[in-house]
Structure formats: C-alpha cells, structure tokens
Design a protein that fits this description.
Elements: H1 3-25, E1 35-38, H2 44-63, H3 68-87, E2 91-94, E3 98-101, E4 104-107, E5 113-116, E6 121-125, E7 130-134, H4 140-150
Antiparallel strand pairs: 1-2, 2-3, 3-4, 5-6, 6-7
Helix pairs in contact: 1-3, 2-3
C-alpha cells in the first residue's frame, strides 16, 4: 500500500466517522430531541467540483494502469462526497438545554437576540457570532418560534 492509498483510507475513515456521528450520535447527545428541522443545502457547486476532481483522478489512474486499490479507494471517496453533499440533509436539532447547528452545540442562554429577515432567514445573534438559519420549509420557522417561546 502506497502513501497515497494510506492517505485515502484516512480521509475515507474521517468522512465515514463524520457521517456516522452526524446521522446517529449527534441526535442522541444532550438528551431527547424536541425538534429537528431540515435546512437548505449550501455549497452544492463545491460538492460537484469535489466529486468531479475525484472522477478526474479515477480516470487518470485507470488510463495510467495504476493500482486497482487506488481506483477503489478513489471511488469510495467519491461516494462519500456524493453522500455528504447531495444525500445528507443538514438539520438543526433542538434539545431541552440548547440546539445543534452545523454540528456545534449552542446553549439557549447564549442567544442575545433573534430576528427574521425578509427572505425567511432566521438570524440568531450570539455573544460574538451571528447564525443564519435557512430552513427548507418556511412553516418550520413557526415550529421553531413555538419551541423557543415554551423554553
């Protein structure tokens, strides 16, 4: 196994670990889930570029009669990219004490102010940071509001 193959295995393992954490572990952390709201996907173009570059590497490896294991590892990396950028649905997960947004835990007491922009983006102002929550379904904003008012 070459250094390239080892690096590919490490990246595939890291992406697989992230996918498993995002899908199965994060919803079970910090208590039961009160509300999970799907968000709009961002950076689809970045995903296309990533998978396209991996496809170019696969093509070059096949044409240069490279190692089959490298081709398979590149294919697995491309599949992980497809899952992360196209199949996986980003979501905000509300719990009793706080919420997960972009895989970061944020407690409710850190929220200083909340606003709703004209284009339906929920703006949550923290101490030093502003979160822009773009929900997939505009009706989910009302569910978020009701949940935050009751907590």
């Amino acid at each position: 196994m070459t250094l390239t193959d080892i690096v590919l295995v490490v990246f595939i393992a890291l992406l697989l670990g992230f996918a498993l954490y995002d899908q199965f572990i994060m919803p079970r952390r910090n208590g039961p889930t009160l509300l999970a709201v799907p968000l709009l996907r961002r950076s689809r173009i970045d995903g296309i570029i990533f998978v396209g570059l991996i496809a170019i590497l696969i093509y070059n490896n096949v044409n240069a009669h490279g190692a089959m294991i490298t081709t398979w590892l590149l294919s697995a990396l491309a599949l992980m990219g497809l899952y992360l950028f196209w199949i996986r649905m980003p979501k905000i997960i509300f719990k009793k004490e706080g919420f997960f947004f972009t895989n970061a835990w944020i407690e409710y007491n850190r929220i200083k102010e909340m606003n709703l922009s004209e284009d339906g983006v929920l703006v949550i102002q923290l101490e030093q940071r502003r979160l822009l929550v773009r929900v997939r379904n505009i009706d989910d904003l009302e569910k978020i509001y009701k949940l935050l008012v009751t907590n």
